[in-house]
Amino acid sequence: MSTVETVRGPVETGALGRTYMHEHIFVLGAENVQNYGAGAWWDEEARVADAVAKLRDLAAQGVSTIADPTVWGLGRYIPRVQRIAEQVPELNIVVATGIYSYNDVPFQFHHRGPGTLLDDGTEPMTDDFVRDLTEGIAGTGVKAAFLKCAIDAPGLTPGVERILRAVAGAHRATGAPVTVHTESSIEAGRIVVDLLGREGVDLAKVVIGHAGDSTDLDYLTALADTGAILGMDRFGLDIINPTDARVATIAALCERGYADRMVLSHDASCYMDWFGPDPELMRSAAPNWHYRHIDQDVIPALRAAGVTGAQIDQMLVENPRRYFTSA
Ligand SMILES: [Zn+2]
């Protein structure tokens, strides 16, 4: 019997059910909230209640698990997520460890770790990630179940490379699966499978996040042929790639036999402070970017494009279960 850690404790991987593999609850800058949100646009109780309502609605659609890749750089704060998880017992929330940066490592690692002033031969990031995975996060008792890092338009900067290597080290130590935010316009997934492959990461345990921003079947099949899983995980971000193009790409990949290499999600959140205090402003720029879009619009469109119910189950149930099943 294989289990995966969730906010409320271990769950059998066979019981995860329909799983959205990349949904945030909150994306926040802690310093933004603490210095500019408090007393102004940030109301902790209102935001928690709003998240509970949105996640209950998500669970009511038959989604029983979300993987939330919110880590350092995106405002991970587990006590708040715990409060929400307690009030939505019908939804499993799987949380992550790692660092989200497109450029440099956080200042807290500038002078500690490989090649720095205080180099003691270890990578302190890896130690932190492993502790989150094996002992729990910040005394909450909640264990992370996967690793998260990022590579965006700046490419493999020294900071990004160090974070990817630190994530690889934590994967080797624990076997925990990995999700990487990638920028498809620079084909960053290729850099990821190359680097993580050389670092000894089992690519079958790697989601190339945001691969679905691309419609280039050569790029996508090259990634999938390494064993990696394609994150078709930004449904609703039509400004990057519209739903009909995302759907057509998935249908083409299913036809070529890649249903076992894709997972589906929105990369949505209950609240995100990146677009200013008023989330409705983003609503007008991306009206479909919410937790209901896949169930309401995407699955019917996939069916209409010839994707079978079994292939949809493969992407929503079987592939997430396999990803979170330890070897
Ligand atoms: Zn994300």
What would you note in describing this structure?
With 327 residues, the chain is of the alpha/beta class. It has one domain (3-324): TIM Barrel. It has helices at residues 30-37, 44-60, 78-87, 124-134, 158-174, 188-198, 217-224, 243-255, 279-285, 293-304, 309-324, and strands at residues 3-6, 9-12, 19-20, 26-27, 65-68, 92-98, 146-151, 178-182, 206-209, 229-232, 262-264, 271-272. The strands form 3 sheets. Strands 3-5-6-7-8-9-10-11 form an 8-stranded parallel β-sheet, sandwiched between helices. The protein has a two-stranded antiparallel ribbon with strand order 1-2. Helix 3 (78-87) links the parallel strand 5 (65-68) and strand 6. Helix 2 crosses helix 3 and helix 4 (124-134) runs parallel beside helix 5 (158-174). Bound molecules: zinc ion. Zinc ion is lined by residues 22, 24, 69, 267. The modification N6-carboxylysine is found at residue 148. InterPro entries: Metal_Hydrolase (IPR032466), Phosphotriesterase (IPR001559). It comes from Actinomadura parmotrematis.
* Main sheet makeup: 8 strands, parallel
- Would you state the CATH class? Alpha Beta
Rg over CA atoms? 19 Å
Count of DSSP-assigned helices: 11
CATH fold type: TIM Barrel
CATH architecture: Alpha-Beta Barrel
General shape: globular
**Unreliable spans:** none
Features:
40% helix, two-stranded antiparallel sheet, binds zinc ion, TIM Barrel, 11 helices, alpha/beta
